[in-house]
Amino acid sequence: MSKKRSPASLTLEPRTAIGTTGSQAARREGKVPGVVYGHGDPTPISVDAKELAELLHSGNKAKIVDAKIGGKHDSVLLRRIEAHPISRKPLSVDFQRVSRDEAVTATVTVLTTGTPVGVRDQGGVMDMIVHSLEIKGPAHSIPDNLTIDVRDLGVHQHVTAAQVELPKGWTLVTSGDQTVVSVEITRAQAGEEAPAETEVPVVEEIPET
Asked: I need a surface site. Which of 56, 112, 167, 195 has the fewest CB within 10 A?
C-alpha cells in the first residue's frame, strides 16, 4: 500500500525582474528564479535556495505545498526543476497552482516488497523495468510510492502496470500493458540449460594412391 506525504510550506516572492538578467540577479542573492502557473496568469517568483533545498530533501517535493506568494496564501505543486549539469544545484523551478480536490497527474516511485520465489528457489534474477508510474487523482492525496508484493513471482513471470494497486480515487495514466517488474533466469544459467550441440563426426580424408 502507499503512504501520504506530510504537509509542507514555502515562501515564494513575486519577481519583477524577469529574463536572463533577472534570473542571474536572483541567483546572486541566494535565490532560485521560477514561475507559478495555472488558475490565472503566470507569476514570476523566486524562492530562497536553502528553503527549496529543505523541501527537496524532505520527501515532500511531490506533495501540495502551502505557499505564501506576495502575502497571499496559495496551494501549489512543484512541477519542474532545472539543475546545473555538474553541481546539480537548482537553476530554476516551476510551480502549478492547484485546489486540494483538483485532479492532477503525478509520477510516483514504484517499490517492491519481499523476495520472489523465482529468485529464492529457482535461480532467477528480478529486473525492475520501470521505476515509476504516472497516475491521476486528487491533489491532496498524492502517494509517497506504490508498492508491489513480488514474493509469488516465479521465473518468466512479471507484473504489469495494470496489476499495481492504486490508492482510492486514483487511476492509471501509464499504459496498463507496461511491464513493471519481471523475474528471469540469468544468462549463465540459460547457457547451462541450453541443449548440447549435436556432435559432427570428423571424417579423415585419405589421399588416393
From this structure: 195
Query: Do 117 and 70 reside in the same domain of the chain?
Result: no
**E strand segments, 5-131:** 8-14, 31-37, 43-48, 65-69, 72-83, 90-97, 103-113, 124-128
Instruction: Please report, in angstroms and rounded to a whole number, the separation of the first and last CA atoms in the chain.
Output: 84
Domain that holds residue 62: 8-98
pLDDT of residue 129: 97
Whether residue 148 sits in one domain with residue 81:
no
Query: Per-residue pLDDT tens for 73-109?
Result: 889 999 999 998 998 899 999 999 998 889 999 999 9
pTM for this predicted structure: 0.71
- The residue among 80, 98, 116 that closes a domain is 98
66 and 111 together in one domain: no
My answer on whether 130 and 154 are in the same domain is yes
Residue range 57-79, pLDDT digits in tens = 877 777 888 899 988 888 999 99
Bridge partner list, 77: 96
**CATH, residue 154:** 2.170.120.20
Question: Residue type for 83, please?
Answer: A
pLDDT, residue 108, reads 93
Burial of 172 (0-12, 13-18, 19+ CB in 10 A): middle
